[in-house]
Amino acid sequence: MNNDRRRSTTFLPRRRSLWIFFLLLPALVVMTLFVVWPLLSALRFAFYEFNGLLPSNFIGLENFRKVLFEEPYSDWTYNAFWHNVIVFVSLMIFENGTAFLIAFALLKGLPGHRIHQVIIFLPVVLSSVIVGFLWKLFLHPLFGIVNGALALVHIHGPAWLGNEKTALGSIIFANVWHWLGFPTLVLLAGMQRISAEVIEAARLDGAGDYVLLRRIIWPLIAPSVTIVCILTFIGSFNWFEIPYVMAGLTGSPGGSTDVLGLYFYRTAFGSVTNGIQDFGQGSALAVLMFLFVAGFSFVALRFLRRREIQL
């Protein structure tokens, strides 16, 4: 009897572990085929010269040297990288800053705040391709509703996506409209976790909205801020769908909307206007993007986590 009980007690955990393994197996297969294997392949191909679609000769770090130090490739690389930096800074200021203020307004429970939560988050559920086509129509210089609205107040709107000075800003604005609801709800969730007694005590001490935001709410929502900042950084340097739909694969006009995602795709697979493709250089760009995003995210995450502990 005792032996049977021991066998049954040891058999159940094994059976449970086996069942968990079979449940996780499909996800592991998908991750291996579509994430791990492409990453390892890109790392390998970055060290080869390509003859069409097949690797021919091992050339070491030559592809990395070309994309970083040899003109005109280096100029294109740093131009695209600079635009990604502009996108990141702009989203941090305009998207996340606006989300912080909207989240505080929703926290105060203004009339209709529940409906506004749905309205603000609604664009997030839309596809990036749909948002890109939508705002491309809105910003059309002849029949777009943006220039139509400006014409009502006797202002002649520019060709938003055809002007080097306004093209990148227009695409950033479309991205802010698309994703504003996500950081808003993340920050709102962080604010709602703050004890009502803490906010009430601050109000009784005479704290206004500015002091409350700066001295009470901002330090206490540090974990939510960490999530928003890291995801904004990763999204900014993986930017592809909206600029591709709104400005095209070449980053027109004049490369003013070119970002690393577009440059990588154009280099690896070619484009309609540029039939030249080099999968080795494209793989080198992909590896550099991965190392930069992963490395910077790791450092930033450690810094922001330390800030949470200090606060």
Automatic annotation (TrEMBL):
Its main location: membrane. Keywords: Cell membrane, Membrane, Transmembrane, Transmembrane helix, Transport. Pfam families: BPD_transp_1. The chain crosses the membrane at residues 20-40, 81-106, 118-135, 173-196, 216-237, 285-304. It is found in: Cell membrane. GO terms for biological process: transmembrane transport. Residues 81-300 form the ABC transmembrane type-1 domain. It is a multi-pass membrane protein. InterPro entries: ABC_transporter_permease (IPR051393), MetI-like (IPR000515), MetI-like_sf (IPR035906). One of its GO terms (cellular component) is plasma membrane. It comes from the Bacteria. The keyword Ubl conjugation does not apply. PANTHER family: ABC TRANSPORTER PERMEASE PROTEIN, INNER MEMBRANE ABC TRANSPORTER PERMEASE PROTEIN YCJO. Belongs to the binding-protein-dependent transport system permease family. This is Sugar ABC transporter permease. It comes from Rhizobium tubonense.
